[in-house]
Amino acid sequence: MASCASSAPKSILARLGTVYVSRNRSIFANLAFEEWVFRHHNLEKDGDALLLWSNDPAVVVGTHQNPWLEVNIPFLEANGISLARRHSGGGTVYHDHGNLNVSLLTTHKQHCRPRNLRRFAESLNRHFGVEIVPNERDDMILQPGDRKVSGTAARIARGRAYHHFTLLVDVDLPFLKNTLKSPWVDRIQTNATRSVPAKAVGYLGQEVFGVTVDEVESVVVDTFRSSCEKSSIIETSSFTGAGDAIAKNEATIREWSWIFGKTPKFTIELADGRTAKVEKGIITEVNGNSEVDIVGSRFDHKLYM
Questions:
Q1: Does 149 fall in a domain?
Q2: Taking the mean position of all CA atoms in its chain, how far away is CA 140?
Q3: CA atoms 119, 124, 130, 135: torsion sign
Q4: Are residues 178 and 283 part of one domain?
Q5: SS3 184
Q6: What is the pLDDT of residues 199-253, one digit of tens each?
Q7: Together in a domain, 94 and 127
Q8: Would 4 be classed as within a structural domain?
Q9: Full domain range(s) for residue 95
Q10: How many CB atoms lie within 10 A of CB 258?
Q11: Which domain CATH number covers 121?
């Protein structure tokens, strides 16, 4: 565990707290709102912030990942599942209504993922009578069986940081695994960040029959508020109070240039046996011949795979 797990007592900022609960079901709207909170929430005036939401089915890749490598894109398209790229690093995750997304915003100085996970795991264990244990990768593992129920990522900039993690409450595991099984994994060469497969994946409902996301949300909120002398809750679905900032964020992360164009450069074997080099989602070379007609085109798996 990182040394921050036993860091000094909390500053005055931690005596205040703000809970944002999004009732919007769009992954793009929620990621845009999360980015707005990261950039604009006043930590000095309003204290640390907790943001919670659940999405319609979606798969989210980390900022430095290759979606063609990480995701079963044809399966997503056939089942109406959104594909998104977030601002933080880390691995690829599946979201749906049975998953609670948790973001905790603090100052960079107070940022400590092991301490956060320990607090929330202890509360969940106490409330539901389960055994969830954070590991050295900052995942939360449900025992027995070493089942991963939560994965962590983070974003740090301008003296502030958010730690966000998923929390699987109820999920169709075969469906989840299908979304993350790229049919092209053996045909791509890249230095992009790769997801680390879990030994096993689980969800809280395997141990607590009938548990709901709302119940888990209440425990997470109570855990956060118990560390604050004063806190407030803001529940919303429209985000209209932030003007155009969130709408602009959402428009950006919906664009092809963000979802696919942000992909680190890679080489891929095409269906016809040729090899293509792709940078920023654009084909730059095919079999070493820059005169091939697809050079300069967007890489499109529907055409070339």
A1: yes
A2: 14
A3: negative
A4: no
A5: coil
A6: 999 999 999 999 999 999 999 999 999 989 999 999 988 776 666 888 999 999 9
A7: yes
A8: no
A9: 16-258
A10: 17
A11: 3.30.930.10
**pLDDT digit string (tens) for 18-70?**
999 999 999 999 999 999 999 999 999 999 999 999 999 999 999 999 999 99
Looking at residue 301, its amino acid is H
The one-letter amino acid code at 88 reads: S
How many structural domains compose the chain? Answer: 2
Residues 129 and 158 both lie in one domain? yes
Q: At what angle do helices 213-225 and 113-128 cross, to 10 degrees?
A: 120
In the chain the beta strands, taken as DSSP E runs, fall at 16-22, 48-53, 58-61, 82-85, 93-95, 99-107, 131-134, 140-143, 147-150, 152-157, 160-168, 188-190, 230-236, 266-269, 275-279, 282-286
In a domain, 209, yes or no: yes
Could you give the maximum distance between any two Cα atoms of the chain, in Å? Answer: 66
Q: How far is CA 25 from CA 11, 33, 100, 120, 238, in A?
A: 34, 12, 12, 24, 11
